[in-house]
Amino acid sequence: MKNCSLRMPSCVMAGTGSVAGLTDIINTVSARHIALFCDKGVAASGLLEAVSRKIPASYDTYLDIPPEPDYLQVESLLGQVEARGTDLIVALGGGSVMDAAKLVSVLLGAEYSIRDLLKDPAQACKKVPTVMIPTTCGTGSEATCNAIVLVPEDGVKVGIVNNAMIPDYVILDADMIRLLPPGIVASTGLDALCHAIECYTGLKANPLSDLYALEAMRLIFPSIERAVKEPEAMDAKENMLLAAFYGGVAITSSGTTAVHALSYPLGGRHHIAHGVSNAMLLAPVMRFNMVACTDRLAQIHDAVFSNDSTLSSHEKAEAVVSRLEAIVRALDIPTLSSFGISADELASLAQAGLDVRRLMVNNPRPMTLDEAIAIYKEAL
Ligand SMILES: NC(=O)c1ccc[n+]([C@@H]2O[C@H](COP(=O)([O-])OP(=O)(O)OC[C@H]3O[C@@H](n4cnc5c(N)ncnc54)[C@H](O)[C@@H]3O)[C@@H](O)[C@H]2O)c1
Ligand SMILES: [Zn+2]
Predict the structure, then answer these.
(1) Cβ of residue 93 lying under 6 Å from some atom of ligand 1
(2) Which residue has the least CA distance to atom 41 on ligand 1?
(3) What pLDDT, in 10s, does the model give residues 323-336?
(4) Do 195 and 151 share a structural domain?
(5) Which CATH number fits the domain that encloses residue 124?
(6) Alpha-carbon torsion 144, 151, 282, 40, what sign?
(7) Ligand 1: which atom is nearest the Cα of residue 188?
(8) DSSP collapsed to 3 states, 28-46
(9) Residue 83 pLDDT exceeds 90
(10) Sign of the C-alpha dihedral, residues 366, 370, 372, 375?
(11) Which of 113, 171, 279, 368 could crosslink 333 through cysteines, CB 3.0-4.6 Å?
């Protein structure tokens, strides 16, 4: 067995109503002053009010976190939190809010700045513990050591990765996604599926990541369409929330591949939401990768669908990729051209995607510029 490691938050609470556990967490760590991070969309859904009632201490609320923030916006947030004597950060939101919270947790009172971390993330160390309460079902940021920010001057999104950002407490309460708009359930749910399948088929896959990636797929494949199309199907939503967390755990041990690499420039240059850009690329990339990871896809077929000994590995891999294509079609994911992207730009996007070496080196099949362009063309 190859050497591998996996990170996990120290305490994970799950189940409907588990957000009540926030009170215990705050009492356990004896927090005196809390920074509650959220955003305006989540606040408008009524969740902020419900969660605030569970805080038995003084707190400040920070709502000025835009979707997919840039590093300057995180810097400005840090300025607001500084000097408030914060000893616990609670993040209530999707990946944007959680990533901002994770960054502030290593920046409060630090001798380095976020610009320093962009150049050298190794210097980060945790200053304040964190509680993550996800309100989308995709990023798995509640489980990972990563925080992603836009660098506007370069038009790129950058992942800052350091074990110091692993959350301390996580609360997975499906009530938080009960009213999540269906389009966001679809795109963030497909992001979670990308995490699981990329971690399982990537070159860094290992027995620790496989366990979480496979379980995430067992939960997502039968649940995602119901979670989007039947807003009352709380069993499906619970599966999606759990799967998103498992996908994040798998990332800490394996990692994403070409879907995420090619998705990065779409977020950086065109501000396409992370889940949407991954959803557009998922099926074309997996079809391209299929020849290099046929056996791994066949294993997914056996674990998630059925272990049918009359099918060859190739037929099983084909069935998995066809299923991905059908799910993406059924969930009405937009096309690149609907964001104003034309064929002329594909070569430059493809080069930018191939330059995301951190992820591309994990892809099971090497990719040329022309192949990357062909993948974008399928999403056009
Ligand atoms: N750290 C990681 O490991 C990791 C992994 C993947 C992606 N990301 C990052 O996460 C960000 C994307 O996060 P996301 O996909 O969760 O979306 P998001 O946090 O940007 O939220 C999307 C929108 O949904 C709204 N929203 C969220 N929860 C809601 C709810 N329950 N009800 C109503 N509205 C709600 C928000 O207000 C926002 O407008 C990107 O910046 C991406 O790069 C991080
Ligand atoms: Zn992702």
Answers:
(1) yes
(2) 68
(3) 999 999 999 999 99
(4) no
(5) 3.40.50.1970
(6) positive
(7) 15
(8) HCCCCEEEEECCHHHHHCC
(9) no
(10) negative
(11) 279
Closest C-alpha residue for ligand 1 atom 29: 42
Domain shared by 217 and 322, yes or no? yes
Ligand 1 atom nearest residue 150's Cα: 41
Ligand nearest to the CA of 195: 2
Which residues constitute the domain of residue 227? 182-379
Does residue 72 surpass a pLDDT of 90? yes
Separation in Å, CA 377 to CA 79, 187, 208, 263, 329: 43, 20, 35, 13, 16
Judge if 186 and 173 occupy the same domain: no
Total domain count, the chain: 2
79: enclosing H helix or E strand: helix 71-81
In sequence order, what DSSP letters do the residues of 200-265 get, joined into one string?
HHSTT--HHHHHHHHHHHHHHHHHHHHHHH-TT-HHHHHHHHHHHHHHHHHHHHS---HHHHHHHH
209 and 355 belong to one structural domain: yes
Q: What is the mean pLDDT of residues 273-302?
A: 98
Residue 143 lies in a domain: yes
Regarding whether 187 and 166 lie in a shared domain, the answer is no
Ligand 1 close to Cβ of residue 168 (< 6 A): no
Q: How far is the CA of 96 from the centre of ligand 1 (A)?
A: 5
Note whether 149 and 95 are within 8 A (CB): no
The pTM assigned to this predicted structure is 0.98
Q: Hey, whose CA ends up nearest to atom 43 of ligand 1?
A: 148
Q: Is 51 in the pocket of ligand 1 (CB under 6 A)?
A: no
Evaluate: CB of 252 within 6 angstroms of ligand 1: no
Which residue in 43, 18, 16, 42 sits closest to 94, CA to CA?
42
- Looking at all shown ligands, the one closest to residue 146's CA atom is 1
- In 3D, which of 12, 39, 38, 16 has the Cα closest to residue 25? 12
pLDDT of 224 higher than 90: yes
pLDDT tens for each residue of 356-365? 999 999 999 9
Report the distance separating Cα 376 and Cα 182, nearest Å: 25
Longest CA–CA span in the chain (Å) reads 66
C-alpha span between 270 and 348 (Å, rounded): 13
Nearest in space to 58 (alpha carbons), one of 80, 102, 93, 26: 26
Residue 3 lies in a domain: no
Same domain, residue pair 243 and 364: yes
Q: What is the mean pLDDT of residues 26-42?
A: 97
